[in-house]
Amino acid sequence: MAVQIAPSILSADFARLAEVESSVADSADWLHVDVMDNHFVPNLTLGLSVVRSLLRHATLPIDCHLMIEDPDRWAASYAEVGARNVTFHVEAAAAPVRTARAIRAAGARAGLAFKPATPIEPYADLLPELDMLLVMTVEPGFGGQAFLDVVLPKLRRARALLRGRDNLDVWLQVDGGIGPDTIERCAEAGADVFVAGSAVFGADDPAKAVHALREQADRAAGAVSAADDPDG
Ligand code: DX5
Ligand code: ZN
After folding, report:
1. Which of 171, 187, 201, 205 is deepest in the core (most CB within 10 A)?
2. What is the pLDDT of residues 159-185, one digit of tens each?
3. CA atoms of 111 and 13, how far apart (whole Å)
4. What DSSP designation does 32 have?
5. Which residues have C-beta within 8 Å of that of residue 213, sequence separation ≥ 6?
């Protein structure tokens, strides 16, 4: 299970997005872009045209996290303009299978996101349609919120669910309050893709912050797989 770090631009300077991307281009795996419509969440960020512009300047693949109503209508467009991953919320989707298929047909990975109180088990049969599960570790809408450790059991159950389907390559992403104090608990619980906004762009040196988070997550994930390995 390879650790991946996806800095979220939500806590960066929106007037300098291209520079923000360059600051982590050599250290991160993805650039996480939060699309909010002021309806699904009480905050408004950016949409398709900004993502399209950002893609012209970015070398990192873009991970779009759609916090919008009616993702069935909009999600595939983000894949069509070139986002490499498009994640939409299960609470907002009327037809998650059709939407995931449309994202994949447009050439991107498809992710399904769950707010803290939304269980994953009812969607277990949809896993073959998906490339990633996003387990929100805060209520979506804002950066800089405190990590909700009540979500950790769900994260563990999601990892167990994926382990039970061992031919499925579905990533498990966490988003919200991820930083030096919380990333290890998430890695131990089974997350492999880590979104971090304020922990990266609130740091003096964002690239250094990404390296440090990766090291912590690698160490915690390594300790878990060593404990799971019957041969030691
Ligand atoms: C919140 C967003 C996150 C946000 C995380 O709804 O989905 O991606 O940027 O910010 P931090 O890492 O500061 O909690
Ligand atoms: Zn996000």
Report:
1. 187
2. 999 999 876 899 999 999 999 999 999
3. 26
4. E
5. 5, 178, 179, 180, 183, 194, 196, 199, 200
DSSP character for 207? H
Could you give the CA distance from residue 204 to residue 184 in angstroms, rounded to a whole number? 22
- Give the dihedral sign, CA 183/184/186/190: positive
Identify whether the C-beta of residue 169 lies closer than 8 Å to the C-beta of residue 175: no
Is 231 assigned a catalytic role?
Answer: no
Q: What is the CB neighbour count within 10 angstroms for residue 50?
A: 15
Handedness of CA 115, 117, 118, 122 (dihedral sign): positive
- Average pLDDT, rounded, for the chain: 96
Ligand 1 pocket, residues with Cβ under 6 angstroms: 8, 10-11, 32, 34, 65, 138, 140-145, 175-178, 195-199
Q: Which residues pair with 134 in a beta bridge?
A: 113, 173
Q: Which of 29, 34, 37, 63 is catalytic?
A: 34
**Catalytic-residue membership of 175:** yes
Ligand 2 centre from 164 Cα, in Å?
27
Q: What is the pLDDT of residues 70-85, one digit of tens each?
A: 999 999 999 999 999 9
Tokens of 18: 């291209």
